[in-house]
Amino acid sequence: MVLPRSEMEFLQPESWAEALAVRAAYPEALPVAGGTDVMVELNFARRRPPALLDLGRVAGLADWGTEDGLLRLGAGVPYRRIVTELAGRAPGLAMAARTIGSAQIRNRGTVGGNLGSASPAGDALPPLLAAGALVELASVRGVRRVPVAGFCTGPKRSMLAPDELIAAVLLPPDAGPEQFAKVGTRNAMVIAVCSFALALRPVSRTVGTGIGSAAPTPVRAAAAEELLVAELPWADRAALPEPLVRRFGELVAAAASPIDDVRGTAAYRRHALGVLAGRAVRRAWAEHRRGGVRG
Amino acid sequence: MRIDCVVNGEPRRADDVWAGESLLHVLRERLGLPGAKNACEQGECGSCTVYLDGKPVCACLVPAGQARGREVVTVEGLGDGDLHPVQRAFIAAGAVQCGFCTPGLIVAVHDLLARTPSPAEEEIREALAGNLCRCTGYEKILTAVRLAAGREHES
């Protein structure tokens, strides 16, 4: 449905406190950061919110740093800066960020926007799931931190309350080997057919996973994580047994609930996820064997 | 609403801008700068690429209000009264056919060479991945980039 131009306000707070006050006063206003999702909706007249709430000038929203022993990534940090500044601290997220859109899109798009859109194909979401990230939500009522695993509640739906804004994501500070891989029709400018993220944490001997574009929301593959926790040769860093790789791929594929759509069939997505999972664990384990003590 | 910003080095003003309007629309329809092209309107094609505060962006995806007080440079602002060397390289290499993608590619190449004066082949391809051309098959565009980077002997 094409909607005509409508009365629309442009709300432009400059501080976080002001942004939260505006959000509370105008819960129907559509928050916009880099605009790479929101403006498509407006350009194609699919959406006519009564107001846009521009978060682009809010001081501090595009900062990152360490807080409470966690890496705190402001919701407004563009993907370009995640690639150039955080490849060491958040390797999986940085790998995913590099695959998003094009240079022009990465100069503008943000993790906060990816969460706000809550698309099952949001490329930043699987690595956040794998890393066990928290999402910091704020309103005039206060601040809450929720696991990213429960943040998306359905396609383009999230637990964000009408008066809340996404402030930041919080990641463990010492990432171990992490991987991200996605399937698309070309390298740039694709909506993922499916994607997979893996995080190994050798110190705690734990594993995180995230599956994108293959379920109504990004999902973890819990059984596949448990398999690696139990079976990876953590102690001697021995070579990865091929049957373990295969079984891991099968469990990742089984954790998805894909559909047939214009980008691919459910059967193809399941198959591709198994392949991506195998690649990811081979690469991450090879990195671990090369000897980092991170994680 | 009113938008005041600096475009190609000069203070510019647009009035009665709709809140949902893109920076691209303001540049083309209100400020008389039709260089950046309006094609896909969804960030896929790169034809509307301009600099916003020094970073190449798709102007179709920037809410005009976000450009308030910011600095915009369009393809019209790259040359210093004459064609920029990147533009001359596109002409010399025959990298222009219908020309619709050209302004966006010129800005993207301008940015690439400003950051990486001698880009490797892979760096060129990654930097231009967000700019679609439906005429040239890209080979002559790549030749133009090498030419502009002073690597014409490799073309």
From TrEMBL, chain A:
- Entry keyword annotation includes Transcription: no
Keyword Magnesium on entry:
no
FAD-binding PCMH-type domain location:
1-176
Superkingdom per UniProt: Bacteria
- Pfam families listed in its UniProt record: CO_deh_flav_C, FAD_binding_5
What the entry lists under PANTHER family is as follows: XANTHINE DEHYDROGENASE SUBUNIT C-RELATED (PTHR42659:SF2)
Question: Per its UniProt record, what InterPro entries does this chain match?
Answer: CO_DH_flav_C, CO_DH_flav_C_dom_sf, Diverse_Substr_Oxidored, FAD-bd_PCMH, FAD-bd_PCMH-like_sf, FAD-bd_PCMH_sub1, FAD-bd_PCMH_sub2, Mopterin_DH_FAD-bd
UniProt keywords (A-Z) are: FAD, Flavoprotein, Oxidoreductase
Q: Which organism is it from?
A: Plantactinospora mayteni
Q: Recite the lineage of the species.
A: Bacteria, Bacillati, Actinomycetota, Actinomycetes, Micromonosporales
Q: What name has this protein been given in UniProt?
A: Carbon-monoxide dehydrogenase medium subunit
UniProtKB/TrEMBL annotation, chain B:
The record, for InterPro entries, names: 2Fe-2S-bd (IPR002888), 2Fe-2S-bd_dom_sf (IPR036884), 2Fe-2S_ferredoxin-like_sf (IPR036010), 2Fe-2S_ferredoxin-type (IPR001041), 2Fe2S_fd_BS (IPR006058), Beta-grasp_dom_sf (IPR012675), Diverse_Oxidoreductases (IPR051452)
- Source species, domain of life: Bacteria
Q: Where is the 2Fe-2S ferredoxin-type domain?
A: 1-78
Record flagged with keyword Iron-sulfur: yes
Q: Which UniProt keywords apply?
A: 2Fe-2S, Iron, Iron-sulfur, Metal-binding, Oxidoreductase
Keyword Disulfide bond on this protein? no
Name-wise, this protein is Carbon-monoxide dehydrogenase small subunit
Its gene? coxS
